[in-house]
Amino acid sequence: MDTAPTWFTGQLLLALPGIGDPRFEHSVIAMISHDEDGAMGIGIADPIEGMTVGAVLDQLGIEHEAPLDQPVYLGGPVEPSRGFVLHSRDWGGEGAVLVADRWMVSSSHDILRAIGEGRGPSRWLVALGYAGWSPGQLEGEMVRHGWHVTPGSDALLFDTPPARRWQAAFAEAGVDARLLTTKGGEA
Question: What Pfam families would the database entry show?
């Protein structure tokens, strides 16, 4: 019998109803790393109201050709001023890290400059902050039915409108999110 732990790097975490933390209601989190040392993920379903990628580049003094009116996402409650770019594998500049052979994550100004100049990855999204778990914490939340794990598709990650990502991710996993409940029953 294989007793090796299951790690969720490269998967999507979907918050279940009644997760118990309002910051994570309807969250979709792209897992960047998960191992015996803990876990880190970036939220991809909660745009920060009024904040666009173009505005962030303007704040950083990075020129850009296009308006770049894509939203910036609340990546999580940890280090909310730290930026991350989750992107396709067709760009691998300074500090780009491959995540489970699926997508990449970068946090340097190099990728922001590349996006501003129109030479960045073909698919990307920008987030501020991240969700982090200490060793064993995420596993404990899984036991308490806080999260559902699913592979999720690149189309879900990059093309689905943020307001639909949570429900669409469940649908991809074969689950009708409208039928999820916080109530349990007895048999």
Answer: DUF179 (PF02622)
Q: What b/e sequence results for 72-87 when a residue is b if at least 16 CB atoms lie within 10 Å of its CB, and e otherwise?
A: bbbbbeeeeeebbbbb
Cα separation, 37 vs 23, in Å, equals 23
Residue range 90-103, pLDDT digits in tens: 998 888 999 999 99
Query: Which homologous superfamily does the CATH classification assign to the domain defined by 12-174?
Result: VC0467-like (3.40.1740.10)
- Measured CA distances, 17 to 25, 33, 144, 161, 183 (Å): 7, 24, 12, 20, 9
- Bridge partners (DSSP) listed for residue 81: none
pTM given for the model: 0.92
Domain ranges within the chain, ordered by starting residue: 12-174
Q: How far apart are CA 126 and CA 115, in angstroms?
A: 11
pLDDT tens figures, 60-106: 999 998 899 999 999 999 999 999 999 999 998 888 999 999 999 99
